[in-house]
Specification:
53% of the residues lie in helices and 9% in strands. It is of the alpha/beta class. The protein folds into 3 domains: 2-49; 62-271, Rossmann fold, CATH 3.40.50.300; 277-347. ATP binds at residues 106-113.
């Protein structure tokens, strides 16, 4: 804050000097120009110190987003391509027709939250900690069926206030399957094709829904490909979107009978396929590296063997995706270190 005061003092002094040198007949023009320059300089100085809805706080790093998904997301070819293209296309437009709405579907551990956080990391300087990224959790923020009307009012107020503050706001709704139907219909006006709603333009904002709904059908279609000897990367977005739309609209949860679906306001339904053992082993390798452990083949195999797989006949898919890897890896690495300590003590 002290630094901002210094910047303002310098700007005021420069403004006074400029006005003092101005001729009387140009004084009015000089005042206007000086004031405009002062406002611009003030905004620039302020945004160097505190968070603002512009660069450097808005990063829009699409190259980094693509690289991160390519290098850190496994087994999700549809999610990787759809997310990068959809987000870049939306942010590249100076005047998009509507807010971007993505709906991620699949079982736990497939990477839905992970991808949402990667998006935030590459659009905002502080990622998920940015003042312009807003996370709602179904079971936490909308727990009671009797309060749907209240939730809708609060949600509208929150979104209007934050998009007013920053038109490039990101809203992430996790555990949509645990929300009561009707809550999300509150945002319908904000993701429609209106230029403004109550004087606010919502078309540059982004909404992401995360849900387990459709996970069973996504898994079944993936398993059908496996049993037919077809590679999973031949699964198309078109066939999966049809499956997801039907499941999300008819199964219990926040999108059941939703006007967002019937009104075709969700731009992309993104499937997250069940992860195979080979994908889980890559997640294990990354986690061991993150924790500064050598990712040896034996360690990776031991951790992978501690997880559960299905179906019983083939054991090809991880029941929890990559979700429980950290806990299992920590347990096994701790046991390994305890064993080494015992050996060391016995040698003394």
């Amino acid at each position: 804050m002290e630094l901002l005061r210094v910047h303002l003092l310098v700007l005021l002094l420069l403004t006074e000097v400029a006005l003092a040198r101005a001729e009387p007949q140009t004084m009015g023009e000089s005042v206007g120009a000086a004031f405009a320059a002062f406002v611009d300089a003030y905004q620039y100085a302020k945004c160097k110190i505190s968070m603002c809805c512009e660069k450097p706080w808005l990063t829009s790093n699409f190259t980094g987003l693509r690289t991160a998904l390519n290098e850190r997301l496994y087994g999700q070819h549809l999610a990787m391509h759809t997310v990068v293209q959809a987000v870049k296309a939306h942010f590249d437009k100076e005047s998009p027709q509507k807010a971007l709405v993505l709906s991620f579907h699949g079982w736990t551990g497939g990477g839905k939250n992970y991808v949402a956080s990667i998006i935030a990391q590459h659009l905002y300087a502080r990622g998920m900690d940015s003042a312009f990224v807003h996370l709602f959790i179904g079971g936490l923020h909308f727990p009671h069926s009797d309060d749907v009307a209240s939730y809708k009012r609060q949600l509208r107020s929150w979104i209007i206030g934050n998009v007013t503050a920053c038109e490039r706001s990101l809203f992430i709704f996790d555990e949509v399957d645990l929300m009561d139907e009707g809550v999300l219909d509150a945002i319908k006006p904000f993701i429609n094709h209106y230029p403004q709603v109550n004087g606010v333009d919502f078309r540059k904002s982004t909404f992401i829904f995360l849900s387990n709904r459709g996970g069973d059908d996504i898994t079944q279609r993936t398993l059908d490909y496996f049993r037919a000897g077809k590679p999973r990367d031949k699964i198309t977005l078109r066939e999966m979107e049809e499956i997801i739309t039907t499941a999300a609209y008819n199964e219990e949860g926040g999108l059941r009978y939703s006007q967002l679906i019937s009104g075709h306001l969700i731009d992309h339904f993104v499937p997250f396929l069940p992860l195979e053992r080979q994908h889980v082993m890559l997640c294990i390798r990354d986690y061991l590296k993150l924790m500064n452990h050598e990712p040896t083949e034996d360690r990776i195999k031991t951790i992978a063997d501690s997880l559960q797989y299905f179906p019983k006949s083939t054991q090809i898919y991880s029941a929890a995706g990559c979700k429980r890897i950290a806990q299992k890896a920590d347990l096994i690495m701790q046991a390994e270190m305890d064993q080494q300590d015992d050996i060391f003590r016995n040698e003394l």
